[in-house]
Design brief:
By secondary structure, the chain is an all-alpha fold. It has one domain. It contains nine helices and no strands. Helix 3 packs across helix 4, helix 4 packs parallel to helix 6 and helix 4 packs antiparallel against helix 7. The longest helix is centred in the middle third of the chain and has 40 residues.
């Protein structure tokens, strides 16, 4: 059966995200704290004086949010470059932009194909998030061990409104954002808040969890039990 224009767009978008995730996995050494710290030191003057640097930073933050790179890296970098106050502001805007894009992409790709009630186990969790609205978003963002990217995509599968999602994201992410920006601003062993470079382990778990949430409901055995 031929794909519609929207279907082709979904395939291209999904393929682009998968390619981005694979790229970051294959070149994960480039995203460790040492490489990022060296890049900032070498280009700090140019970045701080470039009027377009804040916009570029937000765009980078969006890419980071889509490809399972820890948000803590980019938030600390904002503190190093712009200080705690401007760094916190830009890191918050970048967090909101990245979270919003991930949310909208998941909603666009799903578009009614999967409902939380169809997902065993994980579906009940998503339904509880729907009932909680912006409060649920805030509480989940306040949990520091919850990876940023999987949470963005997971909320896109729910019926939570975009505005409540944005409000909850800002409120829940603000404490850790300010903390990381302050860490970068004071120069205390910058870029070390990423589990010593082992960020790809929780990222891989997040990818597997999302893939499982899509594939499990389509298994023949699960479909027969549902019927």
């Amino acid at each position: 059966m031929a794909l519609s224009g929207k279907g082709i767009g979904r395939v291209i978008l999904a393929a682009a995200i998968v390619a981005g995730v694979l790229y970051t996995w294959l070149h994960r050494d480039l995203f460790q704290h040492g490489h990022l710290q060296a890049f900032i030191i070498e280009n700090r003057a140019w970045i701080s004086e470039n009027p377009y640097a804040p916009l570029l930073y937000i765009l980078v933050h969006v890419v980071v949010s889509l490809t399972f790179i820890p948000r803590s890296l980019i938030a600390v970098a904002a503190g190093v470059i712009w200080g705690v106050w401007w760094g916190s502001l830009l890191a918050t805007l970048g967090c909101l932009a990245g979270a919003s894009v991930g949310f909208l992409i998941a909603r666009y790709l799903n578009d009614g194909l999967i409902r939380p009630s169809q997902l065993p186990g994980f579906g009940r969790f998503l339904e509880s998030l729907e009932r909680g609205g912006w409060r649920a978003v805030t509480m989940l963002r306040l949990v520091p061990v919850m990876p940023h990217t999987p949470v963005n995509y997971a909320f896109g599968l729910t019926s939570v409104g975009f505005l409540p999602y944005c409000v909850g994201t800002v409120l829940g992410s603000l404490p850790t954002t300010v903390f990381y920006a302050d860490l970068g601003a004071v120069g205390e062993t910058t870029m070390t808040m990423t589990n010593h470079g082992q960020w790809y382990v929780p990222a891989a778990i997040g990818v597997v969890a999302i893939a499982a949430s899509f594939l499990l409901p389509r298994l023949p055995g699960l479909r027969r039990r549902k019927d």
